[in-house]
Design goal:
The chain is of the alpha/beta class. The protein folds into 2 domains: 271 residues, Aldehyde Dehydrogenase, Chain A, domain 1 (3-Layer(aba) Sandwich), CATH 3.40.605; 183 residues, Aldehyde Dehydrogenase, Chain A, domain 2. It is 38% helix and 24% strand. It is built from 14 helices and 23 strands. Strands 15-16-17-14-13-19-20 form a 7-stranded mixed sheet, sandwiched between helices. α1 packs across α7, α4 packs parallel to α5 and α9 packs across α10. The model has no long low-confidence stretch (mean pLDDT 97).
């Protein structure tokens, strides 16, 4: 029988109102398990449990928090191959990428375990004689976390870990498409020593659980990663109800390649950024902006490199790129191939659906050349293994093209010029800038986030996470 997985509410595993199968996109005949579908009543119970647990957890000792988060991180790292295999099986990343993501989740919990012990404030003199001033941080309260399908263990980890470290209680609603990793993480957390109600998992449809979470009066703050359209609706709802909000909403990231770039390096980082993880990363570079002197050689080198990419089962040895995560995403990717050709761009490589030994959502990575910045393929986030090359005259034109987007998450430049690298770092309108590195590679201990339509609210990850998960208190004392 297919194993069923329940919701975690107030320390108990509770059956859902129904169950949905979790399918392997590499092999649609492989059912990973059946996962609970909650309803508004279960969401309400989870929020109430979190509210009841909050006073004690918010004032608990820092050693207890450290011990719990450190234990969670240690178990994730000890089981990284098992968890990485589960991730590859349910989301479609290669097993190597899945193991790397699981290891990152473990490292995140370890980092925030340390943050439990590094809390700091300020002591200042008042302008009034004989009075002291203390500035401290306290937890926000009960936080609702809504996570996407493309990083099913790392993104929940980088939201859950700081929330718990700073003394908040949590209700997690993971993406309905990939509940397996979130459930496995919840199961680990349930055995960490954290009191009942501090962490709760409610799985189900976004239109049911997500909406109820955002609009629940017992939720103090919402952290969301997903599409721009949904993020905008969440921001409006939170503003109306005066909830703190943090949004990460994607990108249309540029990778600039200048005439003086190392060609082999530029090609490799472009392939890594645009196509690995099946291009399903908000930091993926889908716009390759190339100056005219290197343009012909770059296009030819990209075609040669892409011919060597192996698309296949995410668990198979030698696979470079796994399947697209879902049928709807695959259909969206293929529709943009037609859109790009209809707009006059040249399909230089790939863009075909593949039939392999197992029935899955496979497609060859697609590369357009002879595209222009005004085309839809260069304006809209595709979120798949589809990239286009835009020819520009020089660095100044490349910078202008890179910034000509409603998004501003990540941007990269390939160049041997210190002058251009330095100028690009300062003038790129992105929250994260990479010089001679893939746009999609980021560390877990430093801020993550963007500008414009990519992000709203305080940064995620590293010490900057405290800006969202804490509130500042100023206290005066008469000596």
């Amino acid at each position: 029988m297919t194993q069923r997985h329940d919701n975690l509410i107030n320390g108990e595993w509770l059956a859902g109102t129904g169950y949905a199968p979790n399918l392997n996109p590499s092999n649609l005949a492989d059912v990973i398990g059946e996962y609970a579908q909650g309803d508004a009543a279960q969401l309400d119970a989870a929020v109430r449990a979190a509210r009841a647990a909050f006073p004690a957890w918010a004032t608990s000792g820092i050693q207890a928090r450290f011990d719990a988060l450190d234990k969670i991180g240690s178990e994730i790292l000890a089981r990284k191959e098992e968890l990485g295999t589960l991730l590859a099986r349910e989301e479609g990343k290669t097993r190597a990428e899945g193991i790397g993501e699981a290891a990152r989740a473990g490292a995140i919990f370890k980092f925030f375990a340390g943050e439990c012990l590094r809390g700091a404030g300020e002591t200042l003199p008042s302008v009034r004689p004989g009075i002291g001033v203390e500035i401290t941080r306290e937890p926000v309260g009960v936080v609702g976390l809504i996570t996407p399908w493309n990083f099913p263990i790392a993104i929940p980890a980088w939201k859950i870990a700081p929330a718990l470290a700073y003394g908040n209680c949590v209700v997690l609603k993971p993406a309905d498409l990939v509940p397996g990793c979130a459930w496995a993480l919840a199961e680990i957390i349930s055995r960490s020593g954290i009191p009942a109600g501090v962490f709760n998992l409610v799985m189900g449809r976004g239109s049911v659980i997500g909406d109820a979470l955002v609009n629940h009066p017992g939720i103090d703050a919402i952290s969301f990663t997903g599409s721009q359209g949904v993020g905008a609706r969440i921001a409006a709802a939170c503003a109306q109800n005066l909830k703190k909000v943090q949004l990460e909403m994607g990108g249309k990231n540029p990778q600039v390649v200048l005439d003086d770039a190392d060609l082999a390096q530029a090609v490799e980082l472009s392939v890594q950024s645009a196509f690995y993880s099946t291009g399903q990363r908000c930091t993926a570079s889908s716009r390759l902006i190339v100056t005219e002197g290197i343009y012909p050689k770059f296009v030819a080198a990209m075609q040669e490199r892409m011919a060597k990419i192996r698309v296949g089962d995410a668990l198979a040895q030698g696979t470079d790129i796994g399947p697209v995560a879902s049928l709807s995403q695959l259909e969206q990717d293929l529709s943009y191939i037609e859109i790009g050709q209809g707009e006059g761009a040249l399909l230089a490589a790939g863009g075909e659906r593949l039939k392999l030994a197992t029935d899955g959502y496979y497609m060859t990575p697609a590369l357009f050349s002879e595209s222009s910045q005004d085309m839809r393929i260069n304006r809209e986030e595709i979120f798949g293994p589809v990239a286009s090359i835009i020819r520009v005259k020089d660095y100044e034109a490349a910078l202008a093209c890179a910034n000509d987007t409603p998004f501003g998450l990540s941007a990269g430049i390939a160049t041997s010029s210190l002058k251009y690298a330095t100028h690009f770092k300062r003038h790129s309108q992105a929250g994260m800038v990479m010089v001679n590195l893939p746009t999609a590679g980021v560390d877990y201990h430093v801020p993550f986030g963007g500008r414009k339509g990519s992000s709203y609210g305080p940064r995620e990850q590293g010490r900057y996470a405290q800006e969202f998960f804490t509130t500042v208190k100023t206290a005066y004392t008469l000596a």
